[in-house]
Amino acid sequence: MSIEWKGVMPAVTTKFTANDELDLEMFATNIKAQIDAGVSGIILGGTLGEASTLTNDEKKILMKETVKLVEGKVPVIINIAEQTTKGAIHAAEVAEECGATGLMMLPPMRYKANDYETVTYFKETAKSTDLPIMIYNNPIDYGIMVTMEMLEELTVCDNIQAVKESTRDISNITRIKSKFGDRLRVLTGVDTLGMESVLMGADGWVAGLVCAFPAETCAVFELAKAGRIAEALDIYRWFLPLLELDISPQLVQNIKMAEVATGIGTEFVRAPRLPLIGKERERVAAIIKAGMASRPKLPAYKGIN
Question: EC number(s) for this protein (predicted)?
């Protein structure tokens, strides 16, 4: 399966049981809800997926299970966040063996690589695999900016096809589209800039709160893409307090609380993460409760683009 790199792609959470084991039953429930809502792909192994806490065996189980669950309806994309080039190449090999359709790649972890080192890391991994790749540009959280000049160097690799744009600079979408046209697809990675990014020409949205609200996220994207701005904006204004739960160090806990409210997740996280407590829990619970109480009726949005 090729990847069009467009539409809503959830960075899904990993579901755990009370015994800190993979909860594949609830995971399947959530994936089904995503597919039913009309997402364009499933992204595994990101921050929301708590990938840094998963064993290699658990990652393989989740990859194979997701490939099985989607039944070829949408691509399955694996996030690569490794400390070494060797590790990234191996991760790409494992992803391919497990049936993944594509990769999302962060720059090297921990070591703050310079531009040359970062470009070489991406290139060497890209050359090692036939899987299509989306570069994840998030200097705020990961300390390395992928510049226009670096992206230009990376276009020599045919399988580097997209950018997840998470700089928080909305103008960067225009810069990428103006410089590269359709050579590089652009997907926003910031929930609180979701609709704005679509209006600036983003091809897709790698979303977080979609884990709890898949239909609402897809509706905002599809309506905005179709030029039905007023309808999209009504939903987006309701959605924004919930979307702001994604821009927090505790985004995993926040989003899992929202998944519980919509019946497609559990709150179990893997230590050192712990469920929210005290005033912060009360604050997040109040936002979710208010959102659920005023959840909008959605217009028909599937197939309008």
Answer: 4.1.3.3, 4.2.1.41, 4.3.3.7
- pLDDT single digits (tens) 107-134: 999 889 999 999 999 999 999 999 999 9
96: amino acid identity, one letter: E
Structural domain range at position 100: 7-215
How far apart CA 267 and CA 276 sit, in angstroms, is 9
Copy the structure tokens of residue 124.
Answer: 């060497």
DSSP 169-199: -THHHHHHHHHHGGGSEEEE--GGGHHHHHH
Q: Would you give the end-to-end CA distance of the chain in angstroms?
A: 21
Confidence at residue 298, expressed as pLDDT on a 0 to 100 scale: 98
Domain count within the chain:
1
Q: Are 298 and 216 in contact (CB under 8 A)?
A: yes
Q: What number of other Cβ atoms are within 10 A of residue 227's Cβ?
A: 11
pLDDT in tens, 51-70: 999 999 999 999 999 999 99
Asked if residue 294 belongs to a domain, the reply is: no
Round to whole Å and give the CA distance between 217 and 40: 12
Residue 13 within any structural domain of the chain? yes
- 18 within some domain: yes
3-state secondary structure of 101: coil
Closest-CA residue to 165 (of 187, 132, 196): 187
Contact by Cβ (8 Å): 63, 99 = yes
Cβ atoms of 212 and 252 closer than 8 Å: no
